[in-house]
């Protein structure tokens, strides 16, 4: 339990960090403060210091962590740095909130979770979409059993253009393209709403459509480094009998869209647009409730951070996600890439 404000360190001060900054500011200095900031880029670091003038600043995360006075470190860097930063943060006595994708592979994820257990600190992946009111409603609806048992789900994450504003397209930095960098968000949500089953088998195929698509819009320097998949299709079977179809596309001719749809033995529910359609005595009945703030993504990040900070201050465990769920998500991602590489189904 803490009788003071939670001291937060932010490693990586780009776009996502600023979403966190806004929520922490709104909480008030009596609840939480950003006590340290770190970024390799001088301009981003200077901007963070303007927001948090009392925070110490460093370009090396090890220097930022050295005093050992932080309660929480938010890791908002590219995935190739997540393992080293998370391990160092845990050793420095801080809990860790790490943005997606969690790690480059399962081995790294297991190493970080083992370190958390060893140090007695907590780790959570940035699963902010679970904090959307619509997501929590659907999760509780499935858990309650009134719409039957989950059977099949579709999760998709498709975009007009590759996210070339960051090196998500470069495998050595990102660990994966459209699956690891974007589709992973709705995949996690669909698995969670569906009861967090354990994956059994994965079969996937990938392609790279760039630069045949979108090439003329992208700088030549990016062409030289673009080696990630930007199209994926996969089928995942789970131990509760459900099966999931995944689709990710960075070069879609449709407008940007991402969501999931879950079919149960009595209904079909959808994340976005939020919908609950139930079979009632053979008739399809719309039972979608009216909820406030249903799809406000930024607000979901603020809700996530507010919840985690409150739990830290109260000495309570972070309970939105456990290690099994986190590892299962990483296992599905890894297995998709292995299956696509080998052309074979992967048994987990």
The backbone outline, from C-alpha atoms, is globular
**Annotated CATH architecture of the largest domain:** 2-Layer Sandwich
CATH superfamily of the largest domain: Dihydrodipicolinate Reductase, domain 2
Which structural class should the secondary elements be placed in? alpha/beta
Mean pLDDT: 96
| Alpha carbon gap, first and last residue | 39 Å
Order of helices and strands: EHEHEHEHEHEHEHHEHEEEEEEHHE
Question: What does this molecule look like?
Answer:
There is one protein chain. The chain has 11 helices and 15 strands. By secondary structure, it is α/β, with parallel strands linked by helices. A 9-stranded mixed beta sheet has the order 14-13-12-11-7-10-9-8-15, covered by helices on one side. A 6-stranded parallel beta sheet has the order 3-2-1-4-5-6, with helices on both faces. The longest helix has 20 residues, at 323-342. It is globular. It starts with 5 loop residues before the first strand and ends with a strand.
């Amino acid at each position: 339990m803490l009788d003071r404000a939670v001291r937060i360190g932010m490693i990586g001060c780009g776009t996502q960090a600023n979403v966190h900054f806004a929520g922490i500011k709104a909480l008030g200095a009596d609840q939480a403060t950003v006590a340290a900031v770190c970024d390799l880029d001088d301009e981003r670091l200077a901007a963070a210091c303007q927001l948090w003038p009392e925070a110490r600043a460093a370009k090396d995360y090890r220097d930022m962590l050295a005093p050992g006075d932080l309660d929480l470190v938010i890791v908002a860097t590219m995935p190739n740095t997540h393992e080293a930063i998370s391990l160092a943060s845990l050793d420095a006595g801080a809990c860790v909130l790490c943005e997606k994708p969690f790690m480059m592979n399962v081995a790294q994820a297991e190493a970080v979770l083992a370190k958390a257990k060893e140090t007695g600190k907590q780790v959570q992946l940035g699963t902010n979409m679970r904090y959307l009111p619509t997501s929590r409603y659907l999760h509780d609806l499935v858990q309650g059993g009134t719409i039957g048992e989950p059977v099949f789900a579709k999760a998709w994450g498709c975009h007009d253009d590759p996210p070339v504003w960051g090196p998500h397209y470069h495998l050595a930095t990102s660990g994966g393209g459209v699956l690891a960098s974007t589709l992973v968000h709705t995949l996690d949500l669909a698995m969670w709403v569906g009861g967090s089953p354990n994956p059994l088998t994965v079969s996937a195929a990938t392609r790279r459509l760039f630069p045949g698509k979108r090439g003329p819009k992208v700088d030549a320097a990016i062409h030289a480094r673009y080696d990630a998949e930007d199209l994926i299709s996969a089928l995942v079977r789970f131990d509760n009998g459900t099966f999931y179809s995944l689709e990710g596309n960075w070069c879609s001719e449709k407008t940007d869209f991402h969501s999931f749809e879950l079919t149960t033995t009595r209904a079909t529910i959808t994340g976005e647009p939020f919908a609950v359609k139930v079979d009632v005595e053979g008739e399809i009945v719309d039972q979608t409730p009216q909820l406030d703030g249903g799809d406000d993504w930024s607000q979901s990040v603020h809700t996530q951070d507010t919840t985690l900070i409150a739990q830290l201050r109260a000495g309570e465990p972070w309970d939105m996600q456990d290690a099994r769920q986190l590892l299962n998500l990483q296992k599905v991602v890894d297995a998709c890439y292995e299956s696509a590489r080998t052309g074979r189904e992967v048994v987990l």
